[in-house]
């Protein structure tokens, strides 16, 4: 039992605090615009490296406190975007934000903006793009799974629209979870697949899949896919609102910075998809189990990403709120935390060197007889000698 039970709630104040500190850094201008990016790297990669795996399973009696942290992340994302948009401008005081901040804190945002150059704006795009993943898409992932709550889904879709990805709420919930680890899932990376190529393939195929799902839903109701009742064009319009916000604040400079953040943030999301199910296989129609996701119990990643890293349990019970997800210590596990794994995946030879032994272990210890045959075929299709040699007899552990 935890000696100070209140601390289990405080841990989820860490990502909220990171958002606030990043916003303050944006308001300071100059090299401070890199603050959000550096904070993410230091806290997540550093914390995962220094701390032991978190296998705790605390009980929470006040889920509303955790929901408050979750929803506040969305509100802070909007504030962060507004501050960055303001700093991209070259004159004026859009929405009176500079005057408001100066009256409240005494900071001269006009002076800060004057010393902010192109390199600093690159830092803003990198920072806000990373925040789109941690405080935007990740939070939206949790909310859009709460399909019985119109508020949760609506907030989630507005967060997804920050990376022009409102369709994620359709494809991910209604296709990915049903087809994960099969060739029918665009978000499952194939064995030997280059991560950069996967980013493109997954982005395009997930979007097309979302259009098909929405068209099928609307056709059954006699509604046109381009009607106002269609979630796809509404999602496009939501993203257009954010582009308009940046244009109103800073013209085409603002649009360019926001576009850079969108591309970076969307790519990071696809890298997350890449590492979560890389190379895993499942017979279409077979039950989804913990073995069909790469898990991680690194503590900093778990806290900052609201337990997304406990991915094996999430796929086993997708409707559970994040604070009820268990570590599943016996599930297939990544060697590093999420952010570290993403950067490793960006270097394909290094990723293959790291994951090839893990795929061999998965084949021999987790695969059912049917999955083992699928794995053998996947190894041959990869074209990689080190994978094609992996044909030893499996030791099946059906309960894994």
- What helical percentage do the residues reach? 55-70%
- Overall pLDDT confidence: 93
Largest pleated sheet? none
Through-space gap between termini: 27 Å
Q: What structural class is derived from the secondary structure elements?
A: mainly alpha
Write the element-wise H/E pattern from the N-terminal end onward.
HHHHHHHHHHHHHHHHH
Give the tally of β-strands.
0
Point out poorly predicted stretches.
392-400
> Which word captures the global form?
globular
Notes on the protein architecture:
The model is unreliable at 392-400 (pLDDT under 50). By secondary structure, the chain is an all-alpha fold. The chain has helices at residues 7-10, 14-28, 35-50, 63-88, 97-105, 109-114, 118-144, 150-160, 168-179, 195-219, 231-277, 299-304, 311-316, 338-345, 348-365, 369-382, 385-388. The longest helix is centred in the middle third of the chain and has 47 residues, at 231-277. It has 17 helices and no strands.
Summarize this, please?
The chain has 400 residues and is mainly alpha-helical. The protein has helices at 7-10, 14-28, 35-50, 63-88, 97-105, 109-114, 118-144, 150-160, 168-179, 195-219, 231-277, 299-304, 311-316, 338-345, 348-365, 369-382, 385-388. The two termini are 27 Å apart.
Task: Give the topology.
Layout: H1 7-10, H2 14-28, H3 35-50, H4 63-88, H5 97-105, H6 109-114, H7 118-144, H8 150-160, H9 168-179, H10 195-219, H11 231-277, H12 299-304, H13 311-316, H14 338-345, H15 348-365, H16 369-382, H17 385-388
């Amino acid at each position: 039992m935890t000696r100070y039970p209140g601390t289990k709630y405080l841990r989820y104040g860490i990502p909220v605090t990171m958002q606030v500190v990043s916003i303050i850094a944006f308001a300071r201008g100059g090299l401070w615009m890199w603050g959000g990016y550096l904070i993410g790297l230091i806290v997540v990669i550093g914390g995962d490296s220094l701390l032991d795996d978190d296998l705790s399973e605390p009980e929470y009696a006040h889920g509303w406190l955790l929901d408050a942290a979750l929803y506040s992340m969305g509100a802070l994302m909007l504030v962060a975007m507004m501050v960055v948009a303001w700093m991209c401008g070259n004159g004026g005081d859009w929405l009176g934000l500079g005057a408001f901040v100066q009256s409240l804190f005494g900071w001269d945002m006009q002076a800060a903006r004057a010393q902010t150059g192109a390199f600093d704006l690159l830092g803003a795009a990198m920072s806000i793009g990373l925040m789109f993943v941690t405080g935007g898409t990740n939070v939206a992932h949790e909310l859009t799974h709460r399909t019985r709550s119109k508020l949760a889904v609506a907030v989630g879709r507005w967060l997804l629209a920050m990376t022009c990805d409102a369709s994620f709420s359709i494809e991910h919930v209604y296709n990915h979870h049903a087809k994960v680890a099969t060739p029918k899932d665009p978000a499952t990376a194939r064995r030997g697949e280059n991560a950069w190529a996967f980013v493109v393939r997954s982005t395009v195929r997930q979007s097309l899949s979302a259009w098909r799902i929405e068209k099928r839903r609307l056709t059954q109701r006699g509604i046109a896919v381009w009607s106002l009742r269609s979630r796809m064009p509404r999602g496009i319009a939501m993203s257009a609102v954010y582009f308009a916000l940046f244009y109103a604040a800073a013209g085409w400079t603002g649009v360019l910075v926001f576009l850079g953040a969108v591309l970076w943030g969307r790519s990071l999301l696809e890298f997350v998809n890449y590492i979560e199910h890389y190379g895993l296989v499942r017979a279409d129609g077979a039950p989804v189990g913990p073995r069909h996701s790469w898990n991680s119990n690194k503590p900093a990643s778990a806290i900052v990403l609201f337990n997304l890293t406990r991915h094996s349990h999430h796929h086993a019970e997708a409707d559970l709120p994040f604070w009820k997800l268990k570590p599943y210590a016996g599930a297939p596990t990544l060697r590093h935390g999420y952010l570290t794994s993403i950067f490793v995946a960006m270097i394909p030879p290094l990723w293959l060197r790291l994951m090839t032994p893990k795929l061999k272990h998965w084949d021999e210890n987790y695969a059912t007889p049917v999955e083992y045959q699928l794995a053998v075929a996947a190894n041959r299709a990869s074209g990689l000698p080190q994978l094609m040699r992996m044909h030893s007899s499996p030791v099946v552990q059906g309960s894994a």
